[in-house]
Each structure stands twice: as structure tokens, then as C-alpha cells.
Amino acid sequence: MKLLLIEDDEKTADYVSRGLRELGHACDRIGNGVDGLAAALGDVHDAIILDRNLPQLDGLAVLRALRAQGDRTPVLLLSAMGQVDDRVAGLRAGGDDYLAKPFSFQELIARLEAITRRRADDRTGNAQIRVGGLTLDLLSRIASRGGRRIELSNKEFQLLEYLMRHEGQVVTRTMLTEAIWDYDFSPGTNVIDVHVSRLRSKIDGENEPGMISTIRGAGYRLDAV
Amino acid sequence: MRFSPPALFRSAALSGALWITLIALVTTSLALTVQYVQTARLLEARTRALVNDEAASLVSRYRAAGLSGIAQAIRREVEVPRINEFLYLLATPGGRPLVGNLAEWPSAVDHPGYHRFETEVFSASAPVRESAIEARAVLLPDGFRLLVGNLSDESIVLQDRYFSALIWSLLATGLLGLALGFWYSRRGLAFLRAASDAGERFLRGKLDERLPAPDRGDEYDRLAATINRTFEEIERLIGSLRAATDGLAHDLKTPITRIRARLELAEMQQADAEELHAVIAECRDDLDAILRLILDVLELAHAEAIADIPRELVQLDHLLQEAVELYQPLAEDRGVGIEVTLVPVALAGSRSLLARMAANLLDNAIKHSPKGETVRVDLTVQDGAATLTIADRGPGIAETQRERALQRFTQLDASRSQPGSGLGLSIVAAAARVHNAQVVLTDNEPGLNVRVLFPETETA
């Protein structure tokens, strides 16, 4: 991916851009809002990582200007303090996702992949999602694998839908709590793990290979098998 | 050293007193002067009427009996002493006196009309004296001059009295005003001085400093109460900040030391790839815990710092139901049941903070519940006020420790072995405070019973 990082904090920018390059992504770095907006409008990127507090022109202003120009590049906002109000303001201004500092690099990668993929997804307004042998019918709300019907609770259905929509990508626990429970904090202990392991036991029948793998230190990934 | 006048002269009390005195002085002088001018005018008008009257009767005498007639009339008047003493002088056109009780034509009177002058007067009733005269000069048809006057000593007396009255009353007003003004200003300023002094001491670190607030119910009292509340709030925040810093340092030290030890050990033992992988995984878990702790601290700081959160209408029973659904599988895995009784409650608040509160309480209750026991979640409404109760059958919290459990970073000794940042209940307390709710911890016999009492006004 070709990414644009607009962040004035040297250390964060260093750490993020180094990590992205190590993963094989191209990453342009800009340290202020005005140049950042120019770079965003002047070049095509797969996604933009935009800090909220920037010198000259703050992140939200950059984002609004970008959207006003009709630019639909996915934007991941970064901020020092991730509270609901900030989050809502960021998403309302046209951001695709929001990540509060301090964050782990894994979280950043997972979210970047999610927002760049989401766009491809949006265009297909299918009532059915398929991953390998797994089928999810969004209208009748029926899940099945290889013709075998799977009984899921409401939350489990949402969980599976989210994982299937992000097939092959790492999805973090926070992403799941945000998307399915609409919590802007991560609940204690290992609640999400318990939900995922229940879901796993339901979709993987006897002798069927496991579709959801746990990625240590990051989250989960659903793959077609 | 810079020159500075003595404290008394710099004090606002003195300048306040001086202003009050000045105003009193100006008012008094104005009142006295107006009265003086009016009285003087009245007296003058009366004297002039008398003089006019007398002059007119002499002129008519002159018209009837000529110069000798008027001279005779004047002589007669002068010889007989009267209560109302008049001055007369009939003089030749050149100014030489013919008859009257004035020795010579006054030089001040050089044309007909009213005049006011001072001269020596001989009279029957009193020895020679300098007197003020109010007189009218008349030019008779044949060039002779007539002067009729009256002593206007009254106006001099009036003037004297005016001046002495002015001096005395100004003196009295001045002294009294100064004294009263000083006393009055001091009363307010004593308060300001006390407030400044208390503020100084507070700034120097004496955080329990408070202003005395005698219960008079006036503006000073209100100000004192506001300042005291501000001091209290600052003391509370600094206290919690101190506890937070200490607690944070303590809680970070443990996992960081562990990470360091593991890395050093791995280095020393020249571990192989598989062992290194295990070390990395363990370190990552510890780092995740640290990150989580930091996020919790930030969250708590945010909840404590906000006075006014964006409020929306939150369906509390739905929110609790969702939280229970989130924790149900975890509880089942641990062999703990959850019993839920909810009534519909909607309240204006922060969904995020309320969800956090519910999640933390559930998390705590399930974590501390022994296998086979049940966690009770109840939402009730009485008299329009909602109460959320979450009770477990765990070890509970000793009565003496309950207060502390709601403060920051007090992982109680009993729960030290359990995972968690120790901020769970603190965040609950902070979220409750934002919603003007009260958190009450009681014994569930056995276990912990946490009640969150929402005020009536917060319940929609």
C-alpha cells in the first residue's frame, strides 16, 4: 500500500513509518497540516493516517478540506485521548476510523487494512457473505458451513459477520468491542476471547479445519480453508 | 529598596474612608451654602423694602414741603431713637452734608440706587461702631441728594454664623466620616486580606487552608464559601493525582521489572529461537497489561476532569442487558450464574461512562465469584430514583477498606493476586460522580454489594 502519514510528533512518526516500511508499504511523512493537505490532494494514496493535533492546520480541518474537495481516500485519525466525543467528531468530519494514543502497532495495521478493505466491500451490496464453505445470509440471518446450519445468538452473528467482512485480515479485540458492542473501551479480562472461542466451537464442526485463528498479541483472523 | 508608603496609607480601607468623607463634606457644604444664600437674600429683600418705604415717605415729604420740610423730618427722625435704626443724610448737590446722622457723604455712593457699604455710625442706642449699611441714594429734583439706609448687621451676623457653622459641621462630618468610613471599609477589606493570606498559604502548599465563613449569609459569606469549595476541589484533585502517581508508579514497576528480568535472563542463557519466542510472547503480554493500565488511567483522568459531559438519553436497562450478554459467556466458563432483574429506566447521561461502569462492576463481580455462585444484577426505581445493584458472593471488602476501594489505585490486599489495574471501582466512582450518583458498598453476607444510587433528577 502507498500511505500518507501526517503527524507532527517525530517519535510517533518515526515508529509508525518504520513499521509500515518493514511490512513493505510505502509511506510519505509530513509534519504539518498545510503541507499534509497539499500532499493528500496532490498524490493518490491507499490510505491517510492523520493526527488530530497538527501545527498550522489541525487534523479535523485537513480532513474536512479533503472531503470538501471530493477526495474519498480512507482516513484513519489518531488522537492523544480517545473519548467518545472526539471519536464522534472525527467520524462525523469524514474519518473512516479513529485510534487513540497510545496504541499498539498491530492495532494500527489491523485498522488500516480494515478501512482500505471496507471500500471494496461497500460496492457489493450483497445479502450474502461467503468465505470458503461458510455462508452468512444477512436477510434471513442464517449461518451455515458446508450445508450444515449453525445456530448463532445475535451477537455471535454480528461477530461472525465482522470477521467474514475482514477475511484474511487481523481483527483486534478493540475493533470487535467497538463494532459489535459499541464500547469505546476494552472490557476487562478476556470477555472477547470467550465470545470468539464459543463462536469458533460453533462454526468448526467435527473434522472441519478451524477457520478463526488467534494471532498472539494482536487479535483474530478468519481465513477461507 | 523601593520606597513603599506605610501599609495604612496603601490600604484600600483608608482610600475608601477618604472617599466617603469627601462625599459627606461636599454634601454638607452644599446644603449649608444653599441655606445661607437663601436666608441672606431674604434678609436683603426685607431691608430694601424698609429702606424703600422710608425713602418714599421722605420724597413725598419733599414734594409737599420742599427742602426745609424734608430737613425737618429728617432731624426729627434722628433725634428720636427707634428700634429700627435708620440712617439719613441730606446733602447739597456738591455732597456737603446738611442734615442727618452720617458725618459725610460716603465716597462709595456715587450714583442713585442701592448701595452697600461700611461706615462708622453714632447712634443713641450704641457707641460708635463700624457697621454695614444697606442704603438707597435718591437725587432730588433740584440737585440735592438724599441717602436713606438701614444697618444690615443681620447679614454680617448671618455670614459669621454661616462660616462657623460650615467649619464646625465640616470638622464633625470629616472626623465622623473618616472614622465610620474606615471602620466600614475595614470590615470588607479584613475579609479580602484574610482571603489573600489564605490564598498565599494555599499556594505555598498548605492545602487544608480554608477561609472562616461566619454564617451571616451576605456576599462575603458566599464568596468565602465559593473559595473554600474551590480549595477543597483542588485539594481533592491534587490528592487523587498524588495517589495516582504513586499507584501508577507502583503498578508499572512490577511488569516492567518482570520484562527486564526475562530479557536479561534470555540474554544470559543464550536461549534458542523457540525459547526466545516464548520470552517475546510473555513480554508482550506484560506490555499489553501496561498499555491497558495506561489507557485506564487516561480514561479515569478524563472522567474525573470533566464537569459537564455531553448527555444523551440512555436506556439504562438496555445498556445493562447488553453488558450482561457480553459477560454471560465468561461467567458460564467460570461456572458463575448471572441473575438479572431489570425495570425500564431512561436517564440523561454519558452512554460511554455508564457502559464502562456496568462492565467494570460485572467484571469485578464475576472475577471474585466462587464457582457455583450467582451474581445478582438489579435495576429498581423508587420515587423516581433509579438504583443499580450488583452483588456477588465473593470474599467482599472489609468494612474499613470500603472507602479506600473507591479511590484510585487501591488494589486491596485481598485482590492483589487477581488481574486488573485496580482502577475498576475508581472508574465506577468517577462515572457515578459525573452522573451525580452515589456509590455505596455494603456486605452481601457473604460477598460485596455495590449499589449505585442515581438521583431523582437524573432519572428521566
UniProtKB/TrEMBL annotation, chain A:
Source taxonomy: Bacteria, Pseudomonadati, Pseudomonadota, Alphaproteobacteria, Sphingomonadales
SUPFAM superfamilies (UniProt xref): CheY-like
Protein name (database record): Response regulator transcription factor
Assigned keywords, A-Z: DNA-binding, Phosphoprotein
Domain Response regulatory, chain residue ranges per copy: 2-116
Family matches, as Gene3D superfamilies: 3.40.50.2300, 6.10.250.690, Winged helix-like DNA-binding domain superfamily/Winged helix DNA-binding domain
DNA-binding residues: 126-224
PROSITE patterns reported for this sequence: OMPR_PHOB, RESPONSE_REGULATORY
Species whose genome carries this gene: Sphingosinicella rhizophila
Entries under InterPro entries matching the protein: CheY-like_superfamily (IPR011006), OmpR/PhoB-type_DNA-bd (IPR001867), Sig_transdc_resp-reg_receiver (IPR001789), WalR-like (IPR039420), WH-like_DNA-bd_sf (IPR036388)
Domain OmpR/PhoB-type: 126-224
From TrEMBL, chain B:
SMART domains: HAMP, HATPase_c, HisKA
Short name of one Pfam family: HATPase_c
CDD domains assigned to the protein according to its UniProt record, in alphabetical order: HATPase, HisKA
Membrane-spanning parts: 162-184
Entry-linked InterPro entries: HAMP_dom (IPR003660), HATPase_C_sf (IPR036890), HATPase_dom (IPR003594), His_kinase_dom (IPR005467), HisK_dim/P_dom (IPR003661), HisK_dim/P_sf (IPR036097), TCS_sensor_his_kinase (IPR050428)
GO molecular function terms listed in the Swiss-Prot or TrEMBL record: kinase activity
SUPFAM superfamilies attached to this UniProt entry: ATPase domain of HSP90 chaperone/DNA topoisomerase II/histidine kinase, Homodimeric domain of signal transducing histidine kinase
Domain (Histidine kinase): residue spans on this chain: 247-458
Protein name: histidine kinase
UniProt source species: Sphingosinicella rhizophila
Native organism taxonomy: Bacteria, Pseudomonadati, Pseudomonadota, Alphaproteobacteria, Sphingomonadales
